[in-house]
Specification:
The protein has helices at about 1-10, 15-25, 40-55, 65-70, 75-80, 85-110, 115-140, 165-185, 190-205, 210-230, 230-250, 255-265, 275-290, 305-310, 340-375, 390-410, 420-435, 455-460; strands spanning about 145-150, 150-155, 320-325, 325-330. With about 450 residues, it is mainly alpha-helical. It has one domain (about 35-265, about 335-460). The radius of gyration is 22 Å and the shape is globular.
Length: about 450
């Protein structure tokens, strides 16, 4: 009992972040899309809790580098909020961008104290992915999913037909985390369980029929394999290929539709379907908006208002959605489905350089940390199975998550209940990229990115 109490007390600061992840497993009410969710509300409480702890600690929580990298997006967001069409759009847009790219990532970065906390959150991602994936597979088998080619078979989990990317994003995050944990130098049991989870998650990801998620996941996991070592990459690649052959070729799991969907990836320029045509049209509209307002853009939440004035007649009235408990409806196309172009059109060059600059800085620091742990000899594993001091699994998870997100942003943008998970991802990546790595090995005091002892003292009060 004492051991359980001690373990609970040690993980108490990071448990609110675990709660945010867990709450994304709750069903989304039909017709309630687009608004704040329970997970969004709890993420606000996480930020508040972190702020209270830091104020009580009376210490500077972040180093100068961390403060600049995390706070850099504020510049473009604030300028674009001032240029919004109305105060309502400016305030809501400002709150959303700050939540996703600044406040929640900073709170997660500060609440994660060591690699054990990091691994706890990574396994929480895997657990959520398994839950949503199981629901998605059930939807495909029973024909209760979202509508796809006239059949209600698209796996969308609890997110519903209005957010068809929600389950794909969650499962992809879980798969990337599982691959990173499997390739790390932690306990053998951890690696075995992670391998099994990663193979299991391949099926719901395939049944999401999300081309963007497939591309981003394949690229991120491929990068993780290469970063972990070429010899291991060949072995794991062979196992994954065998699993795909068994699932699709042997059991015929959605083989015809999957083959058609995969082949459509190479036909986006020769014979694009209407969804691809709409996406190209909105991309062109976003670029046209930027040309009219190159520095500051059209303002936060301004893309829908300016879309019709810049889009060609090839743009349809909306995408057809239905199934998974929701009636058929036309869902309006209110964003370009490309985060970079959305930022460029609404925030201009100032906003894009600030936001993308922050992401590139995180990527550079995360890769530098990975190289450092690859060059550090691994200590023997602890009896508790926490893992080695090198933290290769944490490095691979962080680099994989950030790589996935940066690639997926070419085909998607923020929006929907799963967006808060993106904020948690940036926080995890920020902790790995900006922390004091020498202080986070198992058994050593954890200082994260603060001055020596400051964050630990703040969290303990």
């Amino acid at each position: 009992m004492g051991t359980l109490t001690s373990a609970l007390g040690r993980t108490l600061p990071v448990l609110p972040v675990v709660a945010v992840i867990a709450l994304l497993g709750l069903p989304v009410a039909p017709g309630g899309e687009g608004g704040a969710t329970v997970a969004d509300a709890v993420s606000g409480l996480v930020v508040l809790c972190c702020a209270v702890r830091l104020v009580r600690g009376r210490r500077r929580p972040l180093s100068r580098t961390a403060a600049v990298v995390i706070g850099l997006p504020v510049i473009g967001i604030a300028v674009a909020a001032a240029g919004a069409a109305g105060p309502g759009a400016g305030i809501t847009g400002l709150a959303r961008y700050l939540q996703v790219f600044v406040l929640v990532p900073a709170a997660v970065l500060l609440l994660v104290r060591d690699r054990r906390d990091f691994r706890l959150l990574a396994w929480s991602f895997v657990g959520l992915a398994l839950w949503q994936g199981a629901i998605g597979v059930h939807q495909f088998v029973t024909g209760t999913g979202a509508s796809y080619q006239g059949e209600d078979i698209r796996a969308v989990g609890t997110f519903g037909a209005s957010d068809i990317m929600g389950m794909a994003t969650v499962v992809a995050f879980g798969l990337v985390c599982a691959v990173g944990l499997a390739l790390g130098s932690g306990a053998a049991r951890q690696r075995t369980v992670a391998v099994v989870c990663s193979l299991v998650l391949l099926l719901p990801l395939a049944l999401s029929f999300s081309r963007g998620a497939w591309i981003a996941t394949a690229a991120a996991c491929g990068a993780q394999l290469v970063l972990a070592g070429l010899r291991r990459a060949v072995k794991v690649g062979a196992v994954v290929a065998a699993a795909v052959v068994i699932l699709v070729g042997g059991f015929g799991v959605g083989s015809a539709m999957l083959q058609e969907r995969i082949s459509s990836i190479t036909q986006v320029t020769d014979a694009p379907d209407q969804s691809v045509t709409d996406r190209y049209t909105m991309w062109a509209a976003a670029v046209d908006m930027w040309r009219e307002h190159p520095l500051t853009g059209v303002g936060l939440k301004g893309f829908p208002d300016h879309r019709d004035g810049h889009a060609s007649l090839a743009l349809s009235s909306g995408s057809d959605t239905g199934g998974a408990g929701a009636a058929f409806r036309k869902q309006p196309l209110l964003s370009p489905h490309n985060m970079y172009l959305l930022v460029l059109s609404e925030q201009g060059l100032i906003g894009l350089l600030a936001l993308a600059g922050s992401w590139l800085a995180l990527l550079a620091c995360a890769l530098r940390g990975l190289v450092r742990v690859r060059l550090t000899p691994s200590d023997s594993e602890s009896p508790s199975g926490v893992g080695t001091a090198s933290g290769l699994d944490c490095a691979l998870v962080a680099c994989g998550l950030l790589g996935w997100q940066l690639i997926d942003f070419m085909y998607a943008d923020i929006g929907g209940p799963s967006t808060v998970l993106t904020a948690v991802c940036f926080g995890l990546v920020g902790w790995w990229a900006l922390m004091d790595r020498a202080s986070s090995a198992p058994g050593s005091p954890s200082r994260s990115v603060a001055a020596p002892g400051s964050l630990e003292e703040a969290l303990a009060r």
